[in-house]
Amino acid sequence: xxxxxxxxxxxxxxxxxxxxxxxxxxxxxxxxxxxxxxxxxxxxxxxxxxxxxxxxxxxxxxxxxxxxxxxxxxxxxxxxxxxxxxxxxxxxxxxxxxxxxxxxxxxxxxxxxxxxxxxxxxxxxxxxxxxxxxxxxxxxxxxxxxx
Length: 147
Description:
Layout: H1 2-27, H2 43-55, H3 67-77, H4 79-82, H5 100-106, H6 108-117, H7 133-143
Helix pairs in contact: 2-6, 3-7, 5-6
């Protein structure tokens, strides 16, 4: 009988401890302050998550882009390398030509990453510190309209 009581007491204490632990974890699942030690997302992760959860619709089209503003920003920032209609740089020189409009429509995560963080291999400049997030959305939306 004493053995059963001891087992029951240990079981109750263990269950209580487990419940305290779960409660403590549940209370600390608040969103960390950006840039704090608790914020473990990298800058790249945060920007890519923003694309997926806030910028793209279910069909992969950019939501809320101001295409007129995007065109102006494209001409100011992208035209010198990519040309008037985005067809100066071929992203697939060994196969069927692929240009910026096609990349923006079919590979938006790649387009978005390169717009934000650049591409050293292709001498693409990073714009995350140069262009606002809203302006990047406008450029991305406009780029999807290019050939």
